[in-house]
Write a structure and sequence with these properties.
two-stranded antiparallel ribbon; about 150 residues; about 50% helix; disordered N terminus; 6 helices; mainly alpha
Length: about 150
Amino acid sequence: MTDPSISSSKAPSGPRASFGVRFGAALIDGIIVFVVNLLLGLVLGPVGQALGVAVSLAYYTYLEGSPSGQTVGKRALGIRVVSFANGGPLGYGQAAVRWVARILSTIPCGLGYFWMLWDKEKQTWHDKLANCVVVPVSDYPVSAWPG
């Protein structure tokens, strides 16, 4: 006999952004960061490449840590990242953790990104490590961008 208080539902606890929409936003952001890193590398060589990593960290940390929780790609596709604990902004520290955790999501052939396909809360590994979720703006409105 199963306990009726335990839900066997695979549905997330709230509205979540789909894999396709998240992929599209990541593609837009990836192109932006790639172009900046390419230009820095071409102009400044190895120093530019190192600076490119800092630019990427700053881009994601500032925009995802802002009250809107939106990068350019997320804004274009109508999604945002919020704290799983309270549905509010991540803050810059949590956003920086999320950026670093993206590396872990990428290492095993991108498995950390695909994890959301079968995760109950539709979280990637970097979402889990930063205790956040990606949600549609239609359900979690943004007052101002970047906030």
